[in-house]
Batch of 2 targets.
Target 1
Amino acid sequence: MALALTMDAAPPATSGGVNLAQQIGNTPLLDLPLPGTRLPQDVQLLAKAEWYNPGGSVKDRPALAIMQQAIASGALRPETPLVDSTSGNTGIAYAMIGAALGYRVRLYLPENASPERIAILRAHGAKLVLTDPLEGSDGALLAVRDLIAREPGRWFYADQYNNPANVNAHYETTGVEIWQQSGGAVTHLVAGLGTSGTFTGTGLRLRDYNPDVQLVSVQPESPFHGLEGLKHMDSAIRPGLYDPALADRQLRVSTEAAHELARRLAREEGWLVGISAAAALVAARQIALEQADLGQPAVIVTILPDSAHKYLSESFWQV
Ligand SMILES: Cc1ncc(COP(=O)(O)O)c(C=O)c1O
């Protein structure tokens, strides 16, 4: 017997449940305590806690925007799986959203990506191609470009390093949220550079609201580093999205300084932040201390891309 639904009937309990995409974004902006750092009342350091996204990182935002745009344009279809290179977080987001929306996902990533990340990707059913660890994320990028050259038309190449939907995601969401959550008081944005989508999209939006907002980018201090997710732009393949002229200041952070702050935050304050998040906080703390020295009020906002859960096998926690 056909089920007659009237306009005012409650939807059946099995109608699809929660919409995963709607859970992405609107993360909290935390007044995070910094161990060993005392700031005057008029210098505030606020941190956007991106691990509250369902995939556990900031990359849920661009992955969703890239996939929604590709579905709308017809580039992503059930018979043309999504393929991309990723150090992990974008891949997790593609795999999670692909599982929710019914699209297949194949990912190229360096073999030394953390075991926790690889396990999550496999749990979501993504197909993985592990590339030479010595070639890092650039090796994975070149391998996926080779696949696209050999098999054009078989794949939707998401290309997070060059896809403008990556920047737009942050322009439309992260930047708006920071402006609203800080009550329009933000004076500085401090964010790490990977694809540069977070820094660029969020920075452009905040500049639209207030041209005086200072944009501070964060990179690893040296080409060989342990700041997973971040790029040393002088030695890496430059993302097409990256515009070095956008930053008012470019800061460089050592892996050791990030490890030290991550450990102290976990042990002294209870916050288990990721390594690139700790690097962003090292840089944001520097800006905050400079403002305090100058006696200038500031509201410094930094973006914490993920928590430490995917890096717990790293040896620096044992120190
Ligand atoms: C842990 C982590 N931190 C930072 C970033 C950098 O973000 P973006 O690619 O937007 O520059 C990424 C990107 O993958 C990441 O996974």
Note: DSSP finds eight helices and ten strands in the chain.
Target 2
Amino acid sequence: MTALGEAVRQEFLLEDGFATANHGAYGATPRPVLAAQDEWRTRMERQPSRFFNGTILPALRAAADRLGEYLGARGQDIGFVGNATEGANGVLRSQHFEPGDEILVLAHVYGAVRNTVRHVCSISGARMVEVPVTFPRPDDGELLAALSGAITPRTKLAVLDHITSSSALLLPIGEMIAACHAQGVPVLVDGAHAPGQVALDLTALDADWYVGNCHKWLFAPKGCGFLWARADRQAGIHPAVISHGYGQGFTAEFDWTGTRDPSAWLATPAALDFHARLGGPALMARNVALAASAGAALAARWGTETGAGNRAAGSMAMVRLPKGEASQAAALRGALLEAGTDVPIIPHNGQLWLRLSAQAYNEPADFERMGALIEQELAK
Ligand SMILES: Cc1ncc(COP(=O)(O)O)c(C=O)c1O
């Protein structure tokens, strides 16, 4: 297997001496992928009309086909979007809700997606219904029962996270989709964190819609997300921005949402190549193992606990801090950034947790250093 950790850090632009453990937030794009993006930009700027009138559409479709191969999906069922939030907006704002309709979300839904649901509720009179999530160490059976129990004849849509943002939980998404479908409820999966963190087969998963980011764990440049829509769920789904493709079919609508720089999308094949070069499935397994061992080591050092316990997890881990309360989260995070480490500090039930991310360039020493910096800050 390719040497990872410090051995590949020079492939990224990350500042020397910074112990980053926050890949999950915005990703970090490697140099070869940025170079591929630059090449696309150069092609675009050398002859803009030739690029936008001729080159772009087949190039986008080729990139979607390649991404589809990776995701277990057909390229024709994939539209590129700027990010997962934009994809979720497309699905949510394309639907017609009536007063009294219900939209299910998990209690750990990502804030921006929660706001989008709130918005469609505010303009339609629909109601957002929250399914509770136990944290730490939720029980899958309990979660599935809570989800099924929250469905009523008024439930029109469920928005389910594949990997939660604020708690890094890898949820049993296949079973959750099946539980909703069993009661006739369509599902939009928010998979912002999943591509590149866990293996995906979108066709087998059989959600109605799945949004994901390539700019987090797949190494694509910022602004590279996708919306996958099952073939029978594409009609009536529009991007958040309506443009020339309106009414001409799913890919036509998503492929053109006005003049914009599509180089992040077109660099997707380079990102997939880079991910594969670093090991592909082996890289993902290594990151999962590193996140789990780093999380367990910190929890043991502090006499606390991890968020996942023995649950299956991705390449992020939650660890409870030995002290501190919710009101201190922002100040502590700021102090840690100053001290040379980047890691989100997230309150849950009045206690502070950190969310660590393990990516190719990380190694155990990063998390030890981060732990020591946290201890120093907490001792102040
Ligand atoms: C679960 C989840 N959904 C959506 C998003 C939004 O991603 P983006 O800002 O790329 O739209 C995130 C970002 O961290 C996330 O964790």
Note: The radius of gyration is 21 Å.
